[in-house]
Amino acid sequence: MCVSIQFDKSSKKPLYVQLYEAIKEKILSGEYSYMKKLPPVRKLCKELKVNLSTVTKALNQLQIEGYIKAVPGSGYYVVYNEYQDKVIFEEEILLSSSVETINLASSKLPYSLYPIEEFKSSINAAIDSFGPQIFDYVEPFKNPLKEYLVEDYLKKFKIYTNSSNVIIVSGAQQGIEIVAKSFLKPGDTIFMENPSYLGAYHIFNNMHLNIIGIDIDQMDQIEDYVKKFSPKALYIIPFSQNPTGISYTEEYKKYLCEIAEKYNFYIIEDDFLSDIATEEESFPIKAYDKQDRVFYIKSFSTITMPALRIGFVVAPLEFSDEVAYFKSTADISTSLFIQVCFAYFLKNHFDLYIQKLKSYIQEKRKLFLDLIKEYNLSKRLFTQNPKGIFVSFLLPPKTSSAYIYNKLKAEKVLIQPHTCFYHKPNSINFFRVSFLDCNSLELKTGIEKIRDVLNSILQKEGE
């Protein structure tokens, strides 16, 4: 590999920085391609007429940022490629898991918490009550799930509606898609938090919507963005936002409803976790929707068992028929068998189950925050007082979360790098963890290893 790098001797910029920038540019341009070996350190020193310290500092920074990798006894290789900053899906991370791995990436519950016996009871009750009819495509009877949602469940969250506005869906992903199709068309502008759930982004992108990402720490300035871009919709996760873990206040939710009416846009609310909330301010945005401008999407996958694929949409009256239509074109209907069984589960077992789940999550969250404090990592948290199941660790601007991911993976600890959540160039560099699917010893060991990896990086960067 030829070394063709020129230094600007008149520049105040240190030589190692100029060298770092030159090599980085060659990698990004493709001149130094994936898995290409860099020239030996001594050759770089000789041909560029710089000392060993200059070359070492430049290469160390490139390694920290995930552009190159040192192979003992061989040299440095380019490990950056055009896919590095694409999404690393949670499913791919979970496939890397093993018995020995501490999984801080997963947002699912441990199997021991799955309400298996309660659901068995619900299945038997559903079959005894409705017989073979629950195995039809569509209900030949009054839907017990819709009935219970409207008359009981939703009222607990101060949401008052009727069954014609409730559409049962096969999980939040389907809910997001049919809602978007019901009132948005190509070219319409939609706002998203940045970072956010990329599953929603891909739906909006495939519909050729104009997606505007608002940095999560700029959401208090949303009205300025509304005035500038005139959105048709806002997609938002108001409780335990994925991935940052922030939860919006009651005041802010009311404010969103007010400006939605004032500037004529709609809110797509994604609620996957508010059942475990303990404070009144954790009511959904829909609870404050006086002008019927909120599409409320509720999924039970995270808080029960993912394979059930059950959720629902409460649509504004003027769009309920459209949402129902796009649901019917997607898969005719969500399994009637699952709907009826889940109705019995909600009615007879859900409240007690949720109380146990709340206690489990509160216990895990307290242990997590105690460990964070013990290991002096508090200042690294994006959200100091998380109320849900996600916590994000802030990283120095030049540190690649993919690099952190690989370092921790080598230590048998799995985390979620920021590439899973950004749909535009990131302004906040972080990685996400969840404390749900690990025991106390695993959590303690995992946090220790995170501390050690972060400390080693920060020492190299002089932070």
From TrEMBL:
Highest taxon in the source lineage: Bacteria
Gene3D superfamilies on file: Aspartate Aminotransferase, domain 1, Type I PLP-dependent aspartate aminotransferase-like (Major domain), Winged helix-like DNA-binding domain superfamily/Winged helix DNA-binding domain
CDD domains from the UniProt entry: AAT_like, WHTH_GntR
Extent of the signal sequence: none
Pfam families, per database record: Aminotran_1_2 (PF00155), GntR (PF00392)
Keyword Transferase attached: yes
Residues annotated as domain HTH gntR-type: 13-81
Residues annotated as transmembrane: none
SUPFAM superfamilies: PLP-dependent transferases (SSF53383), Winged helix' DNA-binding domain (SSF46785)
Keywords tagged on the record: Aminotransferase, DNA-binding, Pyridoxal phosphate, Transcription, Transcription regulation, Transferase
Protein family according to the UniProt entry: In the C-terminal section; belongs to the class-I pyridoxal-phosphate-dependent aminotransferase family.
PANTHER family (UniProt xref): HTH-TYPE TRANSCRIPTIONAL REGULATORY PROTEIN GABR
Full protein name: PLP-dependent aminotransferase family protein
Provenance organism: Caldicellulosiruptor naganoensis
